[in-house]
Design brief:
heterodimer; A: 260 residues; alpha+beta; B: 21-stranded mixed sheet; two-stranded parallel sheet; auxin signaling pathway (chain A); nucleus (chain A); AUX_IAA (chain A); PB1-like (chain A); transcription regulation (chain A)
Chain lengths: 260, 598
């Protein structure tokens, strides 16, 4: 009876793992291949984006967020402790396997934390204005959270019993989205996801994209491979996402799309 | 028998007079069941009706039963719709209700709706069908625009109250405010804080000028300090103010004007808004803080740190405080020392996605409980909580009627001990005998439900997420909480066994919501079969999606009575979302294709 829940709620609020000595070790950044650390679930497409800083204090987590968070402001921040949540039970907490999340991926749970959409939308604009005032200059590209709303699109996957939804505005690029989706659906691919080494292999498959392909339906109703167009254009035209088996997606050759 | 015949001779007018002292609607519901005569007297004299679930009864039937109705309160979508768990177009339409009332209840004066979909056309109908219409309160509603508001403003001869709280309103321009006729002088309460767009400031000022009875005014962010000052000068009797934008330059005329205006408002008891509040404008507010009973800073991320402390320490009579967690444990400590009368506290997360340094922890909550023993209502978002803190809090504040704690990270244990938070929440239910509403979070096992079932006898509403281990958890609650009215569950491992443990229980409740749990279609069908007085509804966007895909993107119309999906295939399929509620209205006739009534 273990529903694949462990994998897809890892998201929501901001971290908050108390940085004890042990935790710090777990959150220490290391360069390494996927799977080199025990129970390491996933990974590292984004390793090269990460600065290899060490952590010295409780405030470090925030520092980390800031460090890598150049292109995604505010809501694009990283969630590490989600990982702790993803471990799901007290026993695996000791591994803090999750704390080894290295990518800036943000998996998310619809409707968590339980805050009214009205409040979320309103605070998004209120906070943006505060932060814009505080910053002398904006280092990276713009806050993608300019508008007031979220952009939820449904994500379906061949063989999975539930639909999920993702808020495209929370991601700054394809890599983040891809990692987030992998986390969200990894439970389904291994039919349970409890077996860590099993899912590790599965994950590698996902990463290699040999088994699954990410596609989307655009405004015109055409199904396209994800990744062809610039990110911003994708966010604007994506209506639905679908994770297809690689074999099914053969017909969807990437094609240059004439933008209207 | 003698007693019964004596009652028939008891003059109706006398009984009616007696009933007029019964204002609590459950009491009125009770007396209406005594006998036919009382049912008739009660229904004809009933002025206020509360419908907690708009699908529990058909609008026509409600309207026909209470022709003398003056005030109607309606709630539509399930609570979790607030968090995007209910797809758009689910329902909760106000139209049928307004139409039914228009046919049968001409005396309608007040309409209060929460989580319903209201169209502009419905608002037009509303103001034209009821000559005495006085008060419209919309909370978390959607489907209408400022054109609808214009219709309300224009046509209501004696509008007293227009209260818009946190609605999604399509903004079609600022002209709606002009629609209040010049002879409209009856306004007592006007709240348009949730409107996102511009308002016509001159119209606003004129409206306020000709509304001598105005007690409550909540402006939106588009109203600048200059206008606020002018308005305040016009209504020194204001009791409840929602400021517009509180951005003002030092020593500007507007700022000076604001200070003097505020000082004249001796009756001001409640403040909200504070959009973009600059520290300077906060200074202007100090002189009235001592009399404030309500303060809402939850949309004011600029008010934090020392600014907050300077403000709050003056608010010694405060009963109700809503803040953001950016005030930090430090800010809460000051609240604890200054606001000794505090009864309600809500702490919202300021930044959903990054662990900022100045957020609140269990320390803040413990401080509050120590300093404010009268606290009875709590909503607290935090990053972590410990069992010992919760135990301390419940010892300090045994009077909680509403206790909602949201630990932002699902399934997070007590960081000090790595244990689940069963004991902490258990302490709350053991100590707080009057607890009516409870929301729990963090790492929780079946044990916490054992406690809830055993001790939370007054509990009416319970919200659970990412908690529990087995069906036994949910069963404890169903068996133990005698007064349970609403149970909402998401992402918990409760399955058919729990769902079917006590099916008659659901008839005593308003509703049950379960999403992302472990229930199957088989279990839901079993429930529907056993309990025909319930609507057992499944929301399955996935299936509707599948159908769409199969038809190459052409969505097939799936009528509500089409059993194709329900009866083909595998009953072991997991159900994504389940909504069960008692009703005398039968299955919904307006359900969209993704809602299946079993």
């Amino acid at each position: 009876m273990s529903p694949p829940q462990d994998h897809h709620f890892a998201g929501g609020g901001g971290g908050g793992v108390v940085a004890t000595g042990e935790d710090l070790k777990e959150t220490e950044l290391r360069l390494g291949l996927p799977g080199s650390a025990p129970h390491d679930k996933k990974l590292g497409l984004t390793l090269d984006l990460l600065p290899s800083k060490g952590f010295a204090s409780a405030g470090a987590k925030r520092g980390f967020s800031d460090a890598i968070d150049t292109s995604s402001r505010d809501n694009g921040g990283v969630l590490f402790s989600n990982a702790v949540a993803a471990s799901g039970s007290a026993s695996s907490k000791a591994d803090a396997s999750a704390a080894k999340e290295k990518g800036p991926a943000k998996a998310q749970v619809v409707g968590w934390p339980p805050i009214r959409s009205y409040r979320k939308n309103t605070m998004a604009t209120a906070t943006n204005q505060v932060k814009t005032k505080d910053e002398a200059s904006s280092a990276g590209p713009e806050p993608k959270q300019n508008s007031n709303s979220c952009l939820y699109v449904k994500v379906s996957m061949d063989g999975a019993p539930y639909l999920r939804k993702v808020d495209l505005k929370l991601y700054s690029g394809y890599k983040e989205l891809s990692i987030a989706l992998e986390k969200m659906f990894s439970g389904f691919t291994s039919g349970g996801g409890k077996d860590e080494s099993h899912s590790e292999t599965r994950t590698k498959d996902l990463l290699n994209k040999s088994e699954y392909v990410l596609t989307y339906e655009d405004k015109d109703g055409d199904w396209m491979l994800v990744g062809d167009v610039p990110w911003v254009m994708f966010v604007e035209s994506c209506k639905k996402l679908k994770i297809m088996k690689g074999s099914d997606a053969i017909g969807l050759a990437p094609r240059a799309k004439n933008q209207n | 028998m003698k007693v019964q015949s004596a009652m028939f001779y008891f003059p109706e007018e006398v009984i009616e007079h007696i009933f007029s002292f019964l204002t609590h609607h459950p009491d009125r519901n009770t007396v209406s069941t005594v006998c036919k005569a009382w049912y008739k007297i009660e229904r004809l004299s009933r002025c206020e009706v509360f419908v907690g679930n708009c699908y529990a009864i058909r609008p026509d039937r409600a309207a026909a039963r209470f022709p003398g109705l003056r005030s109607l309160t309606l709630k539509g979508k399930p609570h979790f719709a607030d968090f995007d768990l209910v797809p758009p177009d689910w329902g909760g339409l106000a139209g049928p209700w307004i139409e039914a009332m228009a046919r049968s209840c001409p005396n309608l004066e007040e309409l209060r709706m929460k989580r319903m979909v209201v169209s502009d056309e419905s608002l037009e109908l509303l103001v034209h069908a009821f000559p005495n219409f006085k008060a419209l309160v919309l909370v978390s509603c959607e489907g209408f625009s400022t054109d609808g508001l214009a219709a309300v403003a224009r046509s209501c001869k004696s509008l007293r109250e227009l209260d818009l709280q946190e609605n999604e309103i399509e903004d079609r321009g600022p002209r709606w405010l002009n629609s209040f006729p010049d002879m409209c002088t009856s306004l007592v309460s006007l709240n348009f804080a949730c409107l996102k767009g511009e308002v016509n400031l001159k119209s606003l000022e004129r409206l306020v000028c000709r509304s001598p009875n105005l007690k409550c005014l909540r402006l939106n962010r588009a109203v600048p300090v200059e206008t606020l000052a002018k308005i305040m000068n016009q209504c020194p009797n204001l009791e409840d103010l929602g400021t517009g934008s509180l951005l003002a330059d030092q020593f500007s005329e507007a700022y000076v004007s604001l200070i003097s205006a505020l000082q004249k408002c001796k009756k001001l008891r409640s403040l909200s808004g504070f959009w973009d509040a600059s520290p300077l404008c906060l200074l202007a507010v100090y002189p009235i803080c001592a009399n404030l009973t309500g303060l809402n800073l939850s949309y004011a991320p600029t008010v934090q740190g020392q600014d907050f402390i300077n403000l709050i320490q003056h608010c010694v009579k405060l009963l109700r405080l809503w803040v953001l967690d950016s005030v930090g444990d430090k800010g809460l400590a000051v609240v604890a020392s200054a606001c000794k009368e505090l009864q309600e506290l809500r702490v919202f997360p300021s930044d959903l996605f990054a662990a900022g340094p100045a957020t609140v922890t269990e320390e803040g909550l413990v401080a509050i409980s120590t300093g404010c023993p009268k606290l009875n209502s709590l909503l607290y978002f935090c990053h972590s909580m410990t069992n010992s803190a919760l135990i301390t809090v419940s010892k300090n504040c045994p009077n909680f009627t509403r206790f909602r704690l949201c630990i932002l990270e699902p399934r997070k244990p007590d960081p000090a001990t790595n244990e689940p938070l069963d004991e902490g929440f258990g302490a709350v239910v053991k100590t707080c005998k009057n607890l009516r509403r409870f929301s729990i979070s963090g790492l929780l096992t079946d044990q916490v439900f054992y406690y809830i079932g055993k001790y939370a006898k007054a509990l009416e509403m319970l919200s659970i997420a990412f908690a529990g281990d087995t069906d036994q958890g949910m069963t404890y609650v169903l068996n133990g909480c005698k007064n349970l009215r609403k149970l909402e569950i998401r992402d918990c491992p409760f399955g058919d066994g729990a769902l079917l443990a006590d099916v008659t229980k659901y008839e005593t409740m308003r509703s049950l919501w379960m999403s992302s749990c472990d229930i199957s279609l088989r279990g839901c069908k079993a429930l529907a079969t056993k309990m025909p007085s319930l609507n057992v509804e499944i929301i399955n966007e996935w299936e509707a999606e599948m159908e769409e895909n199969l038809n190459n993107g052409v969505a097939e119309v799936i009528s509500n009575n089409n059993n194709k999906h329900i009866n083909n295939g595998n009953d072991e399929r997991k159900v994504e979302k389940l909504y069960v509620y008692r009703t005398v209205g039968g299955p919904r006739t307006d359900a969209p294709d993704f809602v299946w009534t079993l």
